[in-house]
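re: ur question from yesterday

yeah so i grabbed the chain u mentioned. its 130 aa long if i counted rite. heres the sequnce exactly as i have it in my notes:
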Amino acid sequence: MEKTIGLRIKELRTHYNIGIKEFGMRCDLSHVAVFHFENGRTIRPHKASLQRIANIYGTTIEWLLYGSGDMLPNGKRDLTHETNNFDAFWKDEAYSEIKSKNILLEKEVDRLWQMVSHFTSGEKPNFQKS
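ran it thru and got these structure tokens back, copy pasting raw so excuse formatting
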């Protein structure tokens, strides 16, 4: 019986001894998508998904699609390096998000202080956001 794409994806995942969730997370795929690939519910994944899997896990699209060539032509990848890059990316994303929210909060605090100042001085407040 010929191996399917899903069985080759499962073989790759088990070779690295990782679960479906971690495998998917590294490739920006849901664990459900990986499960569907492995169990034949998704017959042919998108080329972009296959390319991400191949790049991250050190295989080729040809091996994933047809089983041609070696599973790992350049040897087993060090996934700890990939994890560090992944973690750094999300840390940068989180920092950028927090920084932008902090700027918005500072503007809102300034607006509230202006309102308090107007109320205490007896002037008519300007409730418009800038």
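noticed a couple things. The helical segments are 5-15, 20-26, 31-38, 47-57, 61-66, 79-121. also Residues 20 and 31 are 6 Å apart (CA to CA).
anyway ttyl
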